[in-house]
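Translate structure to sequence.
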């Protein structure tokens, strides 16, 4: 064995010579055991010496010479990019590099406090390393019968330190434990709460919880009453709730900026009188609500009509319940005829069996928020009769719609009177300025499209007197025919009406036949447009 090192020359050579001499001398069994024990001690001593030398060498490395505060600054970038998970330790592996790194990270309590529950098996260890005062951010901390060793019991949590709590509730027992804990204890530091219940949607409203500084709550399939005066963001999904309970929560949260409710089921109220209940949300920026098991009329009467919000609020309503009467259109009248929203330009879109109405401001978009109302399970056959039998207020509201968009197949049986329905719709939309027809699912789509040229002779008044722009696909334009189109356009143009623009959808690169000279003589702006152009909708919607 040749080792060229002063340390070996001073100690190793003599020790090795001693070992060689002992190997040649006869020994007993007890002597062999004694020599083996001495060799193990020598090996351990050399290992400790090696570790000490390597530790001192690491201290001389450039990263070890960094001040601790600089090293921790770098570490935080690593922590953000390398989060732990149930299958990966993530940044925790940095504690295994060397003693210097480990001591620094172990002393940084906030790092451990931010990740409690990310690795369920290590929840207790993370909580211990978080110190006594660092704000806690908990993930998935629930009781669980089968995984009890991996999770912290709710009663062991220092609730006064909890700032973030993302809680998965696997069954009704853990849900009951959680709500009991919430009602019995104040959460003085809780700012962000996520509750996800793995079961049928339930509501716990017999008691009230207290979260004085809660600013964000996202909940799935569970709703409970809570007092949160600083609540800013509320996101509910697949929950059962009464309109009164939700309005009461709003009334206790005057700073609310965003409410998102998807697949909300409004249960019947328990007899509470909400006629005088008004909720003022002056900071509300977004109101998005998707509901089922409630009609548009009941949604308006029991919920929407009780909320006062700024005109700049972005409102989205999606209603899946079929329209049963003309009263269901009260919600449209409410938004289309509000005096404070005269600046909005409204568009009606009928596609895939649904009707969507969108109001947006072109003059002052920062002052007026977008309004979007979706009515499911609607075709011309079901929609038009309600429009025909509606009130004067509904007629006034429909007159504010300036854009009509027909795109996508219509559900339901083939409509043999599609042209009549189309004509009635156009008569109802007296303020229409732009019409877009790109595709339709009925077999006789020609019947719908000839409504415009056909009914100019059946009525003393022209349909769509304010129409300025018409956008249509090339194949549909061909099905109408130039003769019918010219016959419809001539008296309109002669009376000083439009359309003054005809946009024909045809993908660039496909055959684009020349337009008929008679059409060009009547409409000053006839041109092809590529439907893939992201700005094509803006050019169609004239202001």
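Result:
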């Amino acid at each position: 064995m040749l080792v060229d090192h002063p340390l070996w020359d001073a100690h190793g050579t003599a020790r090795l010579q001693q070992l060689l001499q002992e190997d040649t001398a006869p020994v007993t069994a007890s002597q062999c055991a004694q020599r083996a024990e001495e060799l193990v001690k020598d090996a351990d001593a050399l290992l400790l010496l090696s570790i000490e030398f390597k530790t001192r060498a690491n201290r001389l490395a450039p990263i070890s010479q960094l001040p601790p505060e600089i090293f921790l600054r770098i570490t935080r970038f690593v922590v953000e990019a390398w989060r732990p998970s149930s299958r990966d330790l993530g940044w925790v592996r940095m504690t295994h590099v060397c003693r210097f790194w480990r001591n620094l990270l172990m002393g940084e309590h906030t790092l451990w406090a931010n990740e409690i529950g990310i690795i369920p098996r290590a929840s207790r260890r993370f909580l211990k390393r978080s110190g006594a005062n660092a704000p806690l951010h908990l993930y998935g901390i629930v009781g669980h019968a089968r995984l009890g060793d991996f999770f912290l019991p709710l009663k062991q949590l220092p609730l006064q330190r909890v700032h973030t709590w993302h809680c998965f509730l696997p069954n009704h027992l853990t849900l009951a434990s959680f709500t009991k804990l919430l009602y019995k204890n104040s959460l003085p530091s809780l700012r962000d709460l996520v509750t996800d219940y793995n079961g049928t949607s339930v509501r716990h409203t017999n008691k009230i919880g207290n979260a004085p500084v809660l600013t964000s709550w996202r909940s799935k399939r569970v709703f409970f009453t809570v007092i949160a005066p600083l609540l800013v963001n509320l996101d509910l999904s697949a929950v059962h709730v009464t309109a009164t309970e939700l309005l009461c929560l709003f009334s206790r949260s005057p700073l609310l900026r965003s409410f998102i409710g998807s697949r909300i089921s409004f249960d019947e109220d328990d007899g509470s009188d909400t006629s005088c209940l008004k909720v003022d949300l002056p900071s509300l920026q977004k109101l998005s609500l998707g509901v089922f098991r409630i009609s548009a009329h009941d949604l308006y009467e029991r919920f929407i009509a009780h909320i006062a919000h700024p005109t700049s609020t972005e409102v989205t309503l999606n209603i899946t319940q079929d329209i049963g009467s003309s009263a269901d259109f009260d919600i449209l009248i409410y938004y289309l005829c509000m005096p404070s929203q005269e600046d909005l330009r409204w568009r009606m879109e009928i596609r895939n069996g649904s009707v969507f109405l969108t109001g947006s401001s072109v003059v002052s978009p920062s002052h007026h928020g977008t309004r979007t109302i979706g009515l499911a399970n609607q075709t011309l056959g079901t929609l038009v009769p309600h429009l025909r039998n509606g009130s004067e207020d509904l007629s006034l509201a429909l007159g504010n719609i300036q854009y009509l968009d027909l795109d996508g197949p219509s559900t339901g049986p083939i409509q043999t009177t599609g042209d009549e329905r189309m004509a009635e719709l156009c008569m109802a939309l007296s303020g229409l300025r732009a019409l877009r027809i790109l595709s339709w699912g009925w077999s006789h789509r020609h019947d719908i499209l000839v409504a415009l040229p056909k009914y100019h002779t059946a009525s003393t008044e022209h349909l769509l007197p304010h129409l300025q722009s018409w956008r249509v696909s090339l194949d549909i334009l061909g099905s109408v025919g130039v003769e019918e189109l010219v016959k419809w356009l001539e008296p309109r143009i002669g009376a000083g009406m439009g359309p003054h623009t005809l946009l024909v959808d045809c993908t660039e690169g496909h055959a684009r036949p020349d337009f008929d000279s008679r059409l060009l003589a009547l409409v000053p702006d006839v041109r092809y447009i590529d439907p893939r152009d992201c700005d094509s909708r803006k050019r169609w919607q004239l202001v």
